Please model this.
Amino acid sequence: MEFELSPEVYDQIIFAMEDQSSIAYIHRRTGTMMQQRPHDPSEFVPLPPWKPVDGFYLMERFVAAVSNRQVRQQLRAALATGKGVFRSFKNVLKQSRDLERRWYRFKEREMRRVVLDWYNQEREAAGLERLGPEPEEIEDLTISDFVVVAAGPQHLDGAHMVDVEALMELRQVPVRDLGSQLEQRRCALAAPGSHLAVACAPEDEVVGLAWARDGAGDEWELVQLAVMPFYRGLGLAARLLQALADGAEEHGVPLLRVRLGAAGLGTSGLFEKVGFTVDSLHLKLPLTGGAPGQGSGGGAPGAAARRYAR
Model:
């Protein structure tokens, strides 16, 4: 794949994916699409498959993240109607303009993720370098356009959506456990001992959160730090961490702690920038019963985890 994956090309590909009446193909170099089977298959590749069942699973994931219990039950009932499920689902969405807007934004983000994965797989197959997420059009937004505050009850639904997006992006929750896990986290957000700082966009939409829970003794321990993909690169994560630390100090809490697994070690610079210091370092070597150096990859280093304290 050598063509630019621009927003316009994204829209064209997604539109063609949802057209169940035909299979579309795209030229490897130019990005030109055609509906009929090409004469030279080596120059064209089929678009990523998208079946009705894929759309149904996408709706299920969205419903699992809806905070309002009554609306969530209505959406689940719509998904259980069988014939006409897509129409029933959209009819429920139309009852709330905000919910409908969230659905379409969620759907667009997820389908763009599918397109990007397919695009990178094709590039790798051709011996080309993978590309990162497309740059979002946020040039007109600056860090001063966002408000970072201690969360109130009105922010909980938005904070839950950000948490869900982060979990799904990192694939931290198996699909079979998704409903129960998200319900537990929704309740935990509002439970006693939960402390939240949120970042709000100019339209008051929650786009990021720093979430801590009461830990051992008088300390707080970080549970989640996340910013929606569209708003990354503006410095919001650092502001959220600082706001959470300021809130801890106002409550007389002497320590804010974060435990980073191996997958999160790349973010250590962010924590150090805010003032965190390394409290301990844990190393592990998975073994299969043999002596050290003979298990799990012939002695390759195992996972590492750092514990940061501020």
Summary: Residues 300 and 306 are 19 Å apart (CA to CA).
